[in-house]
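Thread title: Can someone regenerate the structure for this chain?

I was given the following input by a collaborator and told the matching structure tokens would be attached. They weren't. Posting the sequence so someone can regenerate them.
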Amino acid sequence: MGQDVFDIGKDDETTETASDVTIPSENITIWDEVGLVNAVIAKHKQFLETYNSEFADIDSHVSKLKESSSEEKRERDEINESVAELKENRQLLYHKIKQSRIEMFDLININRDVRKNEQEMAQLQKEIEALDWRLQTTVMGIQKEREIVEKIKKLSAQIEEVDDVRPSDETGEQIKQLSTQIKEMTDEADGCHNELVDIADKSQEHHGSFVEYAEQLKGTRGRYIWLQSRIKSHVSAVSYWEGKQGEITAGDGDDD
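Best answer:
Regenerated them for you:
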């Protein structure tokens, strides 16, 4: 019979064995187990070097920000303590002034020489008492408080004008003494107020700086935490693979 159509003739190309086939080996490294582990360790250490360098810079920056932030907060809090003390002293003075004024009004009202101005005197006293009440019970800004104090001063001056003629007796002398005490305490309260105005601005400046540093810290927080996490991860990986490296080395020693 003729040649089978499936009878494929043999030639050099089809009979070449696998061992005769060559594979280009350029740029290809064949690792043994130890070499592979060493390469993995080296790679993790390379990452650690990069991340540690960046983290050191950020950590230094963060430390400076924290130090500056803490300093601004300390300055602000110290000033605020002084503010609280000044406010307390001022309120105590306002209370004493109010009590002295009530006592003075009582004496004025029994003074017959001012009975002819009784209606005007009563109106002035009523206005002062209303302002005193606001000063004692209402939370307000420094400027508003100053306005009320100045109004009380003007009204008090009007009372002195109305009560210009006083008898030279014990009652008149008591009124005079109380008026002097009120003026002295008012001046002292004014001193507290002026000091408050001065240091309140400084407190606000320190608070503004504190907030600014806090915002900067907030801005670096994400990268800071991420670097911490990556460093921890690579340190753990190095520890793991160095352990494997030790096991391989120990195994090779046992084989010997």
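The mean pLDDT is 79.
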